[in-house]
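STRUCTURE REQUEST FORM
Protein name: Peptidase M23
Source organism: Acinetobacter silvestris
Requested output: structure tokens
Priority: standard
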Amino acid sequence: MTACTTAPKKTAPLVPKSLIQLKAMSLANHLPIPVDGIQEKNLKDTWGAARSQGRNHEGIDILAPRGTKVFSTTEGIISSLKSNNLGGKVVWILGPSGAWHYYAHLDEHNHRLNEGDYIQKGTLIGYVGNTGNARHTAPHLHYGLYLAGKGRGAVNPYPYLR
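Status: completed
Returned output:
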């Protein structure tokens, strides 16, 4: 008699058809602000600001209370729900035109999401925090947009959110 065990949950593979369709779509000229309750007048363009170790800021910081909901600015495929030293808890989404959307310093991910999930614009992806190298700052979302690959070809997302 064998013991009954539950197999670990596997992440869905990136479906080639979805990738082809996403890459064929155009990146919208205007994206919704990803933080619940934040309006355009509350945004500050923090692109290019000096950061530690001689880096420049590759995104926009959107200040909000810890735990404020963060939504996807686009439909796409969840590529990563992990943590790293700089961004803390992060979400990477591959969206239309092959653009990569990066959400960092989250307090928590949406635990119902899995890598490989295809999501729609407006899907809850996490909650504002100050994880990673932002642990000594006010809670905020770092939102980055990359057009030449995951983490490559950063562009200022500020004009897209206005």
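Reviewer notes: Residues 30-47+58-161 form a domain with the Glucose Permease (Domain IIA) fold (CATH 2.70.70.10). The mean pLDDT is 90.
Form closed.
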